[in-house]
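Technical note accompanying the year-one report. For the benefit of new consortium partners, we illustrate the data format agreed upon in the data management plan: each record pairs a sequence with a structure-token string. No post-processing was applied to the example shown here.
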Amino acid sequence: MSEIRPFARSDRDQLTDLVNAHVKAVVPGCSVPVATLLGHMERDPGEYIVDPWVIERETWVAIEKDRLVAGVHLHRYGSDPEVGAGLRNTAGVNWLVCWPVNLDAGRALMRVAVERLDRWTPSTTHVDMSLPAPLVYGIHDAWPHLAILVREAGFSDAEGRTELQFIVGVDRIGIPSERPLEGLTVRRRLHVFGA
């Protein structure tokens, strides 16, 4: 039986390990420090537009035999006119992590999370799944266990958009030659994480 409760500061190391296991499944070798995760849970400093619209944040965890086995971070968005129409008076799962062998605990945690979202009485609820690491958002195919939890909780991607990202090591990129596909172009741009 899982204990479902609000996040406590003493959970920070185990929650960071669980988040990093999910991050590394998507971007090998990438991880976030404890301070980054805690900072993200309080406020997302890299999100200049959407983050100020968040009026409540809660993180909940599932504990089994003194081990943190799942975590969920929830957002509630304001209803003021400056909040974008797509998020105005909505609430959502900002991210969810769970050890694959602890799906029952993940299910119990998602039940509590959905009940919490419902108590905020939003116009709609959604799942974002943006972990605080580069390129780690959406429900990645490396996380089939999370896709199960999200679907079983009643969320669907039927009306959403699908976004694909392809990542390749720089050492595997060949010398420029003819275009492999007609119309394909490659551009390098500077952004917050570099080129």
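Partners are asked to follow this layout when depositing records. Confidence is low (pLDDT under 50) at residues 188-195.
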